[in-house]
Amino acid sequence: MSTTKLTRRVTIPELAARKGGQPIVVLTAYTAPIARLLDPHVDALLIGDSVGMVLHGMDDTLGVTLDMMVLHTQAVKRGSTRAAIIADLPFGTYQSSPQQAFDASAKLLAAGAQAVKLEGGRTMAATISFLVERGIPVMGHIGLTPQSLHTMGGFRVQGRDEAAAEKIIDDARAITEAGAFSVVIEGVMEPLARRITETIAIPTIGIGASADCDGQVLVTDDILGLTGDATPRFVQRYADLAATIDEAARKFADDVRARRFPGKAHIFFPKAAQ
Questions:
Q1: pLDDT digits (tens, 9 = 90+) for 12-34
Q2: Hey, what long-range contacts does 6-9 have (CB within 8 A, 24 or more apart)?
Q3: Alpha helices, DSSP H only, in 49-189?
Q4: Per-residue pLDDT tens for 176-194?
Q5: How far apart are CA 57 and CA 144, in angstroms?
Q6: Which terminus of the chain, N or C, has less C-beta within 10 A?
Q7: Looking at residues 41-45, what average pLDDT do you find?
């Protein structure tokens, strides 16, 4: 009998049950190698539409397609065995109707996601309910919603005045009532994020919000120092891989130009010539 311990993925109900408990750890992943490295340490891997900016050089997330999200979701699924997998619905794939949202979500689940994330509050409540009733777990996203950057006038902190704060609280309640299992709160004033966390019954995942949220998410490339110097205030950089990569590339280039690489250890010779 095999003694190999089987690895089981974190389930969506398990994440939902973490309200008020041990903080939920979420990082973005877009490729199999990164997913493999993050998998032992996080509760969930988010295939965010931030992939457009991080990997594809886009100015914002609006150009990300469903085909791109499917491809990256498949890669993350192959590279991980333990963390829950959540995939963003990209702009233009869920806003026009609940049926459109279902069709797009079904493709992401077929690619390996266990849940989808979509942006918007009360206006998306009917869509969330439609998806949940048909077996698709949904993570909400309120506050600073990058897909609405033109409406918001850019990437601006939300909820600065009472009227704006009340709208975001209303969005959080609507998402909860619609059946979302959790909600990302991005770029809002700290007291507001704390108030929402205390008010709603589902876990809140903060990003530029509050340490009192039920979990936190960041873009992995930001914490690794791979996205340049202009990182948001809410990012903590835990490594400087850009410098490491730069140095490795410089050393390789120097060795090639000096004919130090490849050496004998890297070349194949006939046995008689060895």
A1: 999 999 999 999 999 999 999 99
A2: 7/81, 7/82, 8/82, 9/81, 9/82, 9/83, 9/84, 9/85, 9/114
A3: 51-54, 66-79, 98-110, 125-133, 149-152, 162-178
A4: 999 999 999 999 999 999 9
A5: 21
A6: N
A7: 98
| C-alpha to C-alpha distance for 146 and 60, rounded to whole angstroms | 8
> Residue 6's pLDDT band (boundaries 50, 70, 90)?
low
Helix (H, G, I), strand (E, B) or coil at 46: strand
- How does the average pLDDT of the chain come out, rounded? 94
CA 266 to mean position of chain CA atoms: 39
Task: Report the distance separating Cα 242 and Cα 228, nearest Å.
Answer: 8
Question: pTM for the complete prediction?
Answer: 0.93
* Model confidence at 230: pLDDT above 90: no
119 is catalytic: no
Q: What count of other Cβ atoms lies within 10 Å of the Cβ of residue 196?
A: 28
Q: How is residue 59 written in tokens?
A: 């100015």
The two tokens of residue 52 are: 């457009």
Other CB atoms within a 10 A radius of the CB of residue 136 amount to 19
Q: Which entry of 119, 177, 186, 198 is annotated as an active-site residue?
A: 186
- Show Cβ contacts of residue 108 under 8 Å, excluding neighbours closer than 6 positions: 66, 69, 70, 73, 87, 89, 116
- Give 3-state DSSP helix, strand, coil % of the chain, rounded to 5: 40, 15, 45
Judged on CB neighbours under 10 Å (0-12, 13-18, 19+), 237 is middle
Residues 88, 66: Cα–Cα separation, whole Å: 9
Indicate the SS3 state at residue 165.
Answer: helix
DSSP E strands in the chain: the ranges are: 24-28, 44-47, 84-88, 115-117, 138-143, 182-186, 204-207, 215-218
